[in-house]
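Ticket #4471: structure export looks truncated?
Reporter: QA, pipeline team
Priority: medium

Steps to reproduce: submit the single chain below to the structure queue and open the exported record.
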Amino acid sequence: MKLRIFKQDYLDRLKRMSPNERGNWYRKETPWLSEYFQNQNYFYDTKIDLPDRIELVREGEPSKTDLENSIRIYEAFQGKINPVQAAEERLWAFLCHETCWDYMMWRWPPEKEGTIKTRYFLEGVGSRALSRNGIARLWWFAYLTYDQQRDNHYELTAVLMRHQDIQHNLIERNFGRNRDVLHAILEFLKRHPETNSKEDYVQIGKCLNRLGGVKVLDCMEPAEIICCLESKLSVSKT
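Actual output as written to the record:
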């Protein structure tokens, strides 16, 4: 099937829905955009081919499915979109409301206004918005952590998916979209599984921000970043 994206004016109309309207439409079990827009042509067909179905895991503990679903979304789009396209709200909002509606209803039940704004659209700008959207986050997490050089290409993706606090405190910071820096941090976390609390992740973020104030993180070798983290966070080196 062809990847579809919202036309901007229709996306804007959807975002302007009143809370009462949302309460009616977002309770529906099946995609409802065609009905809501009265069969108007609310999307564009792109030239990007996708699998006929994107099957996402919808059983068990929801947060435990994120790793597998991240891999599935990434591989469905692999080689077909670039980071600029992957920052497009019209793409992810359409997937959330139509292609992946059944998954979204299961993983992020649209029972609150805040959930709809952050998980079904892009609320705000930049990395934070992308890391909160229900489908965009899955692609970005795999894209940023995929490592062709490792036997398990998604080894670092699994580290990132250990806890949402890791995602929020790393991906949403200024260095979050620098793959080399992020890989170094995740390798550090892999080597030191005892570093596993929210406070630890906050300290890592602060440590990197301070380090970035005196050095250019982009120019540092991963081993140097890992060494700095081990020194500043007082962990046992392996």
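Status: closed, not a bug. The export was complete when the record was re-opened. Leaving a note from the reviewer for reference: The first strand starts at residue 2 and ends at 6.
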